[in-house]
Amino acid sequence: MRLPPLLCALTAALCGPAIADSATETAGTAVAVGLPLVAGGITLYQEDWRGTAELLTSTALTVGTVYGLKHLVRECRPFAKPCAPGGPNWDSFPSDTSALAFAPAQFLWQRYGWRYGVPAYVAAGFVGWSRVDAKKHHWYDVAASAGISLVYNEIVTTRYRGRGFHSDLDAGPQGVYAKVAYNW
Protein backbone atom coordinates (compact mmCIF):
# COMPACT_ATOMS: atom_id res chain seq x y z
CA MET A 1 0.00 0.00 0.00
CA ARG A 2 1.34 3.42 -0.90
CA LEU A 3 -0.50 5.45 1.71
CA PRO A 4 2.53 6.63 3.79
CA PRO A 5 3.57 9.29 1.22
CA LEU A 6 0.03 10.70 1.34
CA LEU A 7 0.00 10.79 5.13
CA CYS A 8 3.46 12.37 5.31
CA ALA A 9 2.48 15.08 2.85
CA LEU A 10 -0.77 15.83 4.68
CA THR A 11 1.13 16.08 7.97
CA ALA A 12 3.58 18.50 6.35
CA ALA A 13 0.68 20.55 4.96
CA LEU A 14 -0.95 20.75 8.39
CA CYS A 15 2.28 21.96 9.97
CA GLY A 16 2.94 24.57 7.28
CA PRO A 17 2.49 28.27 7.96
CA ALA A 18 -0.75 30.01 7.03
CA ILE A 19 -2.40 33.25 8.04
CA ALA A 20 -6.01 32.97 9.22
CA ASP A 21 -8.36 33.95 12.02
CA SER A 22 -8.50 30.62 13.88
CA ALA A 23 -6.49 27.43 14.25
CA THR A 24 -9.22 25.46 12.45
CA GLU A 25 -9.27 27.88 9.53
CA THR A 26 -5.46 27.83 9.38
CA ALA A 27 -5.38 24.04 9.32
CA GLY A 28 -8.13 23.93 6.67
CA THR A 29 -6.26 26.35 4.45
CA ALA A 30 -3.03 24.39 4.86
CA VAL A 31 -4.78 21.14 3.91
CA ALA A 32 -6.39 22.85 0.91
CA VAL A 33 -2.97 23.95 -0.33
CA GLY A 34 -1.42 20.58 0.52
CA LEU A 35 -3.96 18.35 -1.25
CA PRO A 36 -3.02 19.34 -4.82
CA LEU A 37 0.65 18.96 -3.90
CA VAL A 38 0.01 15.51 -2.43
CA ALA A 39 -2.01 14.43 -5.46
CA GLY A 40 0.73 15.69 -7.76
CA GLY A 41 3.32 13.83 -5.70
CA ILE A 42 1.30 10.64 -6.03
CA THR A 43 1.12 10.97 -9.82
CA LEU A 44 4.87 11.54 -9.97
CA TYR A 45 5.55 8.63 -7.63
CA GLN A 46 3.43 6.40 -9.87
CA GLU A 47 5.26 7.80 -12.94
CA ASP A 48 1.80 8.61 -14.24
CA TRP A 49 2.42 11.54 -16.58
CA ARG A 50 -1.08 11.41 -18.06
CA GLY A 51 -2.46 11.55 -14.51
CA THR A 52 -0.33 14.60 -13.78
CA ALA A 53 -1.79 16.36 -16.82
CA GLU A 54 -5.33 15.33 -15.86
CA LEU A 55 -4.82 16.58 -12.30
CA LEU A 56 -3.56 19.95 -13.51
CA THR A 57 -6.40 20.25 -16.02
CA SER A 58 -9.22 19.29 -13.66
CA THR A 59 -7.88 21.48 -10.84
CA ALA A 60 -7.37 24.48 -13.13
CA LEU A 61 -10.88 24.10 -14.59
CA THR A 62 -12.46 23.70 -11.14
CA VAL A 63 -10.66 26.59 -9.49
CA GLY A 64 -11.05 28.80 -12.58
CA THR A 65 -14.79 28.18 -12.77
CA VAL A 66 -15.24 28.78 -9.04
CA TYR A 67 -13.19 31.98 -9.23
CA GLY A 68 -15.32 33.22 -12.13
CA LEU A 69 -18.58 32.36 -10.36
CA LYS A 70 -17.35 34.04 -7.19
CA HIS A 71 -17.15 37.33 -9.09
CA LEU A 72 -20.47 36.84 -10.89
CA VAL A 73 -22.67 35.54 -8.07
CA ARG A 74 -23.10 38.05 -5.27
CA GLU A 75 -23.62 36.06 -2.05
CA CYS A 76 -23.04 37.59 1.36
CA ARG A 77 -20.73 35.81 3.80
CA PRO A 78 -22.46 34.26 6.85
CA PHE A 79 -20.99 36.65 9.43
CA ALA A 80 -21.76 39.84 7.50
CA LYS A 81 -25.46 40.38 8.28
CA PRO A 82 -26.66 42.80 7.06
CA CYS A 83 -24.30 42.89 4.14
CA ALA A 84 -23.73 46.29 2.54
CA PRO A 85 -24.16 46.24 -1.26
CA GLY A 86 -20.81 46.60 -2.96
CA GLY A 87 -18.98 45.84 0.29
CA PRO A 88 -16.05 43.44 0.70
CA ASN A 89 -18.11 40.48 1.98
CA TRP A 90 -20.11 39.68 -1.15
CA ASP A 91 -17.89 36.85 -2.40
CA SER A 92 -19.11 33.84 -0.43
CA PHE A 93 -20.42 31.66 -3.29
CA PRO A 94 -18.75 29.30 -4.19
CA SER A 95 -15.80 28.48 -1.95
CA ASP A 96 -12.49 28.70 -3.80
CA THR A 97 -10.56 27.15 -0.91
CA SER A 98 -12.89 24.15 -0.91
CA ALA A 99 -12.59 23.88 -4.70
CA LEU A 100 -8.81 23.70 -4.35
CA ALA A 101 -9.27 20.78 -1.92
CA PHE A 102 -12.09 18.87 -3.61
CA ALA A 103 -10.57 18.89 -7.12
CA PRO A 104 -7.56 16.71 -6.21
CA ALA A 105 -9.66 14.59 -3.83
CA GLN A 106 -12.08 13.70 -6.63
CA PHE A 107 -9.15 13.18 -9.01
CA LEU A 108 -7.51 10.70 -6.61
CA TRP A 109 -10.80 8.85 -6.17
CA GLN A 110 -11.44 8.52 -9.88
CA ARG A 111 -7.88 7.90 -11.01
CA TYR A 112 -6.56 5.56 -8.29
CA GLY A 113 -9.66 4.33 -6.47
CA TRP A 114 -10.94 4.40 -2.93
CA ARG A 115 -7.59 3.70 -1.23
CA TYR A 116 -6.38 7.14 -2.25
CA GLY A 117 -9.80 8.74 -2.55
CA VAL A 118 -11.15 8.14 0.94
CA PRO A 119 -8.28 9.84 2.84
CA ALA A 120 -8.30 12.69 0.31
CA TYR A 121 -12.05 13.15 0.70
CA VAL A 122 -11.74 13.13 4.49
CA ALA A 123 -9.14 15.90 4.17
CA ALA A 124 -11.27 17.85 1.67
CA GLY A 125 -14.30 17.45 3.95
CA PHE A 126 -12.26 18.93 6.78
CA VAL A 127 -11.39 21.90 4.55
CA GLY A 128 -15.06 22.46 3.77
CA TRP A 129 -16.03 22.14 7.41
CA SER A 130 -13.29 24.58 8.44
CA ARG A 131 -14.62 27.18 5.99
CA VAL A 132 -18.15 26.87 7.36
CA ASP A 133 -16.91 26.80 10.97
CA ALA A 134 -14.88 29.98 10.40
CA LYS A 135 -18.05 31.62 8.98
CA LYS A 136 -16.32 32.29 5.67
CA HIS A 137 -18.89 30.27 3.70
CA HIS A 138 -22.33 28.72 3.87
CA TRP A 139 -22.55 24.92 3.58
CA TYR A 140 -23.97 25.27 0.06
CA ASP A 141 -20.92 27.30 -1.04
CA VAL A 142 -18.75 24.29 -0.15
CA ALA A 143 -21.20 21.81 -1.71
CA ALA A 144 -21.22 23.78 -4.97
CA SER A 145 -17.41 23.70 -5.12
CA ALA A 146 -17.43 19.94 -4.52
CA GLY A 147 -20.05 19.50 -7.25
CA ILE A 148 -18.07 21.55 -9.76
CA SER A 149 -14.96 19.46 -9.07
CA LEU A 150 -16.99 16.27 -9.50
CA VAL A 151 -18.27 17.38 -12.92
CA TYR A 152 -14.85 18.40 -14.25
CA ASN A 153 -13.19 15.24 -12.98
CA GLU A 154 -15.91 13.13 -14.61
CA ILE A 155 -15.06 14.82 -17.90
CA VAL A 156 -11.25 14.89 -17.61
CA THR A 157 -10.05 12.02 -15.40
CA THR A 158 -9.55 8.47 -16.63
CA ARG A 159 -8.88 5.34 -14.57
CA TYR A 160 -5.21 4.55 -13.96
CA ARG A 161 -3.87 1.34 -15.41
CA GLY A 162 -0.39 0.47 -14.24
CA ARG A 163 2.14 -1.50 -16.25
CA GLY A 164 1.35 -5.11 -17.05
CA PHE A 165 -1.54 -7.18 -18.35
CA HIS A 166 -5.13 -6.04 -17.88
CA SER A 167 -8.35 -7.70 -18.90
CA ASP A 168 -11.93 -6.55 -19.20
CA LEU A 169 -15.13 -8.49 -19.75
CA ASP A 170 -18.27 -6.70 -20.93
CA ALA A 171 -21.72 -7.98 -21.82
CA GLY A 172 -24.13 -6.11 -24.07
CA PRO A 173 -27.15 -6.75 -26.27
CA GLN A 174 -24.88 -7.82 -29.12
CA GLY A 175 -22.94 -10.37 -27.07
CA VAL A 176 -20.03 -10.72 -24.68
CA TYR A 177 -16.75 -8.89 -25.26
CA ALA A 178 -13.37 -9.77 -23.80
CA LYS A 179 -10.33 -7.52 -23.92
CA VAL A 180 -6.75 -8.31 -22.96
CA ALA A 181 -4.16 -5.53 -23.05
CA TYR A 182 -0.63 -4.88 -21.93
CA ASN A 183 0.48 -1.43 -20.73
CA TRP A 184 4.14 -0.51 -21.08
Tally of separate helices: 6
Please give the radius of gyration in angstroms.
19 Å
**Number of spatially distinct domains:** 1
- Give me the CATH architecture, please: Up-down Bundle
Structure notes:
The protein is mainly α and 184 residues long. The protein has a single domain, classed as Vanadium-containing Chloroperoxidase, domain 1, CATH 1.20.144. It is built from six helices and two strands. It has a two-stranded antiparallel ribbon with strand order 1-2. The longest helix has 24 residues, at 49-72. The model is unreliable at 1-20 (pLDDT under 50).
Set down the secondary structure blueprint.
Layout: H1 4-15, H2 23-45, H3 49-72, H4 96-112, H5 114-133, H6 139-156, E1 164-172, E2 175-183
Antiparallel strand pairs: 1-2
Helix pairs in contact: 1-2, 2-3, 2-4, 2-5, 3-4, 3-6, 4-5, 4-6
Give the key terms.
184 residues, mainly alpha, Vanadium-containing Chloroperoxidase, domain 1, two-stranded antiparallel sheet, 2 strands, 62% helix, 10% strand, elongated, disordered N terminus
Quick summary of this structure?
The protein has 184 residues and is mostly helical.
